[in-house]
Task: structure prediction
Amino acid sequence: MMTALYTAEATATGAGRDGKARSSDGILDLDLAVPKEMGGAGGDATNPEQLFAAGYAACFHGALQVVARRAKADITGSEVTARVGIGRNDEGGFGLEVELSVSLPGLDEAQARKLTEEADQVCPYSNAIRGNVETQLSLA
Result:
């Protein structure tokens, strides 16, 4: 059981992936467009996969900072890049795949890998999609 500390709210309107998305506080107010690679116009609008990638990268980086503080590890200059792919699944619908690339320039590979694996256990996004979305963790 979980008790929510914060609840985000956003509403999508218009033509779904070619519509708009707006948060309840108005801070997020974006046009959406289907990427060219999926047969859309693309252009100057974002898409759900970019939004998910940005959120996951930020969340995982936060989890990485938590586990680094616990381990008293200096992760100055660290970065997390999320790549979110979308494609047809075996059931005739669509699915996602995620690759998280973690850069920890001040740490040796063993320590970087350990912190990355620990962050994967702490990150709410990782916990939410585990077992449902193919996810790869790599060190940059």
About this structure: Residues 33 and 39 are 10 Å apart (CA to CA). The longest helix spans residues 48-71. Helices lie at 48-71, 109-122, 124-129. The first strand starts at residue 10 and ends at 15.
